[in-house]
Structure formats: C-alpha cells, structure tokens
Amino acid sequence: MKKYTYFLPLIGIISFVFLGCSKSSDSSTSSTPSSTTSTSTSTYTRSNTPAKSSVAVPSSLSASGSASSRTAYAAASGTAMFYEMLKGVVAMMKGTISSADLNLMLIDTRIADGYTASSTCYEQGTYTITFSQGMYNSLVAMEKEFGGTEGESGSMSSSFKQYIGTSISPPVAYKYEDISAGGYNHQISVGESCSALNETFRWNTAKTKLSSQFGDSFGGETFKGTFTYDDTNKISTFQAELSGSFAMKMYISLKTCSGSSSTGMTGDCVVFEFKESYSDATNGTSLMSAVGKADDSGGYAKAKMSFTSSGTNYEFGYKEFWQGNGTVDAIMSCSSNCDSAG
Fold first, then answer.
1. What was the pLDDT predicted at 79?
2. Which of 92, 230, 244, 263 is the most buried (most CB within 10 A)?
3. What are 221's strand-pairing partners?
4. Which structural domain range is residue 175 located in?
5. Which residues of the chain have pLDDT under 50?
6. In angstroms, rounded to a whole number, what is the distance separating the alpha carbons of residues 258 and 254?
C-alpha cells in the first residue's frame, strides 16, 4: 500500500489541469535499536543479485539540486504542470527502487549464507540477518542517486539507521527460485506473508537485466506497476496503473546521457520519455506525452496534452524549463505542439 500513496499528489495535479483549462506499511524488525555511529563510507556490494536497480537520476527531478548556473530562458509565464507531474512520478519511482534495493540486499546476504534457490518460502520472523554499516551506506547512496540527502524524513535509510550492527528479522516473507522466462533466470518473490507474495524481482544470469512487478489495493482501488533496469544500455523504466473510482496509467523511461547528449551537461544526466492517461466520470479523460532532458542543474520538456471534459475537446502543447533547485524558468504554450517554440 505504500506505493499507492504516491499517486495522491499526482491526482491533485491532474485535477488542477482540468480546472485551469476549461499501503502504508512500516518497516519493522525484532531487534533492539542500536546507537552505532560509524564513519565508514564503504557500501555493501550485491554479488548474488543485480548490483544496481536504476540509472542515477538528476537531482533537478526531485527539486533538490543547487541553483542553476544557466541563463534563464524567460520569466515564468504561468504555473508549471508537467514538471510537477514528472517530479511526482520520480518520487514514486524512488520509493519503489528504495524498497527493491533493500529487499535485494537483504536476500543477497541470505544467498551468500548458503540459502540457495529452492521451493521454500521463508516467513517473517523465521530468519535473521546482520544489518551492517555498509548496507546502510548503500541505501543512502541509492537515495542520493535520486537527489535525496542522508537522514531525509521518511526515507528507507532513516528507518533502518538505528539497526546498524544488529541482528534483525526482515519485515518480508520471501521465496528465491530459478526460472527460465523471457531471458530471466532467477526470481525473488516477497510479501507480508508466504500466502501474500505480491512483488517479484527477476534477473538474468549476467545480472545486467532486472525486472520487477508489484501490486497493491486499498479500499476499492487497485494499484499495479513494473520497473526495469538494463545495466548494459543504462536505461530505467517505470510504469504504474491505478483503477477503481478513476483510471490512471503512467510510464517513464530514463536513459543515461552519452555521446553528444551529454555535452555541456552537469552531474547526472538523463534523456526521458513520459506518457500518462487519466479518466473519471467527473473530470473526463486526458492524454499526455512528453520528451526532454535533465541534469543536476536543470532541464526541459516538450509536452503535448489532449483531453475531453463536459463534451468539449482540447489539445495543446507547451515547453517547460526548470533549474536545479526546482525554479521554473519558462513555460511556452502552443496550439497543438511545440515544434517551433523556443
């Protein structure tokens, strides 16, 4: 249910667009919290599961970057719509990847201890691991790759910092097995219990491809999603779908800048593609697509949106430019697309 909550601000943003134009679960362990404070910066290296779960994401996509050194394009001409939506999806992706990194790291230690692939499912409370400083540092490093900071409220690392150096009972049931499906050879299934395994992680023998599927529900709403990471081509994808009183689908791909696309860029850099659809009985339906590029100092997007509300069809395009600290420099609206804008 935790991932479901990330949808809420996005729903508000979409409602704003319409108006303007016409599971929470706690991570818990059975150990006694430790006051260990080590200055070590070495990280835990996963060797039995994929070492990485995502490309590095520019800090401007979480509005935590430093002030941009670029020249502003123009004074903001309105309120940003796509940029806020983009940051919301990145926040969802961050929460998902953070949880994935923790699960893959915990089970990596189990495999290293000799618990190899089998049909056995291990319930919560039936196994323990030692949570090390290196594991904590790895969570911090991942969160920083998404523009976060150590000790950030609500982060996975802040939740587990107190357990450094202690033996913990991880808050998930899991099963690890060998498979042969779609180019993947290994799979971990996790959940609150062995009878409720609702998230899977698959990877190939070379550990260069990772794919995850997850699902959740809350009341009458159903949430499901996937993420993938291709370490060879440095591409991450994330997609999520919510159905119930309304329907929403979102997809984003992030590819690490290389060659000419990295020229003049600062820090982490990605080229991205975004797609979204939304519908409900009150507001109508909307479709959005966008492409753009971002680094730690800022970014831009060219977006196109169409929607139907109260029997009226609308279509327009726009460009948005932002700085690393989240300040929007310019918004350029166009009648249908922005091929000639900016």
1. 63
2. 92
3. 218
4. 3-23+47-334
5. 1-2, 4-9, 11-38, 65-78, 340-342
6. 12
Separation of alpha carbons 192 and 200, rounded Å: 13
Q: How many domains is the chain partitioned into structurally? A: 1
Angle 307-312-316 (CA atoms, 0-180°, nearest 5)? 45
Identify the pLDDT of residue 197.
96
Q: For the chain, how many helices (H) and strands (E)?
A: 4, 15
**Contact between 336 and 304 (Cβ < 8 Å):** yes
Count, residues in the chain? 342
Chain Cα centroid distance, residue 330 = 26
95 contacts 240 by C-beta, under 8 angstroms? no
Record the pTM.
Answer: 0.82
Look at residue 266 and tell me if it is in a domain. yes
Handedness of CA 144, 148, 149, 153 (dihedral sign): negative
Q: Is residue 7 assigned to a domain?
A: yes
On whether residue 86 sits in a domain, the answer given is yes
- Which pLDDT score is estimated for 337? 55
